[in-house]
Input
Amino acid sequence: MIRLRKILFKIPATVLRSSIVASQSFHRHTIGQHYRPILSGILVLLAFSVSRGQEVVIKFHHTANGKRLVLQDSTYSNAFNEPYQLTRLKYYISDIGFTQSPQKNVELIDVATNDSVIIKAKAGNYAKLYFTLGIDSALNCSGAQAGALDPLNGMFWTWNSGYIFFKLEGYSTASTADLNRIEHHVGGYRYPNNVAKNIALNLPQAIQLNATDKKIIHVQLNLDKYWQGIHSIKIAEQPLLMTPGGLALKAADNFAGMFSITSIQ
Output
């Protein structure tokens, strides 16, 4: 041990410093190479998470006469004092997001089975929610498809007529159709009978999305506005609406007025 100390004592200080620096550099290089794949993997996961976007739940609430809409058992009345009961209410929502650029998503909202949509949005500040009630002509021209667009959902007419965008069915003593039926199947994608409607809703307050946010946006559909909006739709006069055309265009003009955002969680 004494001999080693004597040897080290005779080594010039500059040589010792160079050796220490080289040793530290070696260790840094070795550790860096060892952890570089792990660090790269973490960065890739972070980038993938950001690119996927933050999940936001859009929940639709359906009301009539100021009450929650219940199928089958409850009776409601429109602005013309026409009583009605509904057995079915469903509609297509597409391109839903916080920007006006097409989002390429299609969801079927069904009061009986599905009232929520999950979307992904990039981090940022947003003041509006955009969506289309209906689907674009390209999807209509593609014939029967899968998922939300599966014909088994009962929302497809034919390859020539395309999809039903909004379906309302039920009964009313004001109806002049057989069995007092109400059947409003609103659709049409060919000019001049394209009834898809772009809708923009102001958020009650601007929201900021980041990687940790979990937002739920509550959207109300007030069915009272369907019967009386830009146009008046009376059950006694129009119990059945089954094809594209003038009446479907009037019904679609009332779509935007039905929706509002009630709260954000």
Residues 1-11, 19-23, 38-51 have pLDDT under 50 and may be disordered. The radius of gyration is 31 Å. Residues 13-52 form the longest helix (40 residues).
